[in-house]
Amino acid sequence: MARRENPEINAGSMADIAFLLLIFFLVTTTMNVDSGISKKLSEKPPADYVPPIIKEKNIFEVNLNFRNELQVEGERMEIKDLKDAAIAFIDNGGGEGKIEEGVKTGPCTYCKGEKSESSSDHPNKAIISVLSDRGTEYGVYLKVQNELLRAYTELRNRLSKERYGISFDELEESYKDDRNNVALQKKVDDIKNSYPQIISDAEPTSSGN
Amino acid sequence: MSKFRKKKKGMPAVNTAALPDIVFMLLFFFMVTTTMRETELQVENPRLPSATEVKKLEHKSLVSTIYVGKAKDAKYGTSYNKIQLNDKIASADDVPAFIINERSKVPENQQPFMTTSIKADKESNVGTITDIRLKLRDVNALKISYSASKGDN
């Protein structure tokens, strides 16, 4: 028998098959980046729970009606002005802070607000209460929440820059990379406790719809 | 003359042997990065609101997702307030059962880190979200994340 060379296998259609698979994955892939505004709900209060009495001036009332209109402290406001109003309220520092584990926190030394008598005493006493209607659009509601968070972020960044020379975002980022760093954790907690986020959601009304 | 006549020659075939390799490389990339949607969406893909203060969700296996939006099936009506749990449209009253079911899939020491991600359409109503939130509080699923895309407005 004559010696024959091995015939080459035709691999021309291999690319076609691979393309077919590739296109399948291309079509089914969802590149979803899961991100969102995280919140911690308050625990369910016991049946006999009596809410503590809070001074009127320490509450920052944000109302949203079913027409998506914003009312802050009894006056109409545009969403873009909300952040600055919230900052002015949180950072007011008009009085003594709350008592933590028997120790008075005293007046706010790092606040740069107006120290007005009619606004909040201390960032750790300042409560932002968001009241919305059942018919309010979710997108608007989230925008309001976002603006309030932005107010806190701005204040925290400012304080962190003052105390540690870097912004709070960077501080948190470096803490994330180095979880066991106690000194870093102290810094993060310090800033967080100086401007604690106290945003409460009131039971929505149902005037519209 | 015929001596100098150019030999008729076709174009040499381009070697395409490396083509499958490249395609396979792409294929593997997509296979690795793909996450198959485990639930079929019964509501229209929610148009997420956008926000600047978003945080990335970590630990995908500890996240349970609740979709809120307009039902694809017209028999549920045209409002943007339909809640989807698992594969079907449900009401807020079914949320506790859904969470308990999700919780049973996770080892006990991980359970406090479980997060509920609410993917709601921009035009949903706050009332629907509140209903879900109250039910979540009943079963002590306190960590939630309002899904939003990063960006201004």
TrEMBL record, chain A:
Organism lineage string: Bacteria, Pseudomonadati, Bacteroidota, Flavobacteriia, Flavobacteriales
Stated family: Belongs to the ExbD/TolR family.
Name of the protein: Biopolymer transporter ExbD
Presence of the UniProt keyword Transmembrane helix in the record: yes
Species annotation: Polaribacter haliotis
GO cellular component, one term: plasma membrane
InterPro entries in the record: ExbD (IPR003400)
Topology of the protein relative to the lipid bilayer: Single-pass membrane protein; Single-pass type II membrane protein
GO molecular function terms listed in the Swiss-Prot or TrEMBL record: transmembrane transporter activity
Any single biological process term in GO: protein transport
This protein's UniProt keywords: Cell membrane, Membrane, Protein transport, Transmembrane, Transmembrane helix, Transport
Main location, first listed in the record: membrane
Domain of life: Bacteria
Compartments in which it is found: Cell membrane
PANTHER family assigned: BIOPOLYMER TRANSPORT PROTEIN EXBD-RELATED (PTHR30558:SF3), EXBD MEMBRANE COMPONENT OF PMF-DRIVEN MACROMOLECULE IMPORT SYSTEM (PTHR30558)
Automatic annotation (TrEMBL), chain B:
Any one of the GO BP annotations: protein transport
Pfam family, one: ExbD
Gene Ontology terms: cellular component: plasma membrane
Residue ranges crossing the lipid bilayer per the database entry: 12-32
Similarity annotation: Belongs to the ExbD/TolR family.
Taxonomic source organism: Polaribacter haliotis
GO molecular function list: transmembrane transporter activity
InterPro entries: ExbD (IPR003400)
Location in or out of the cell: Cell membrane
Main localization of the protein described in the UniProt heading: membrane
Protein's membrane topology: Single-pass membrane protein; Single-pass type II membrane protein
PANTHER family named among the record's database cross-references: BIOPOLYMER TRANSPORT PROTEIN EXBD-RELATED, EXBD MEMBRANE COMPONENT OF PMF-DRIVEN MACROMOLECULE IMPORT SYSTEM
Keywords from the named record: Cell membrane, Membrane, Protein transport, Transmembrane, Transmembrane helix, Transport
Protein's UniProt name: Biopolymer transporter ExbD
Taxonomic superkingdom: Bacteria
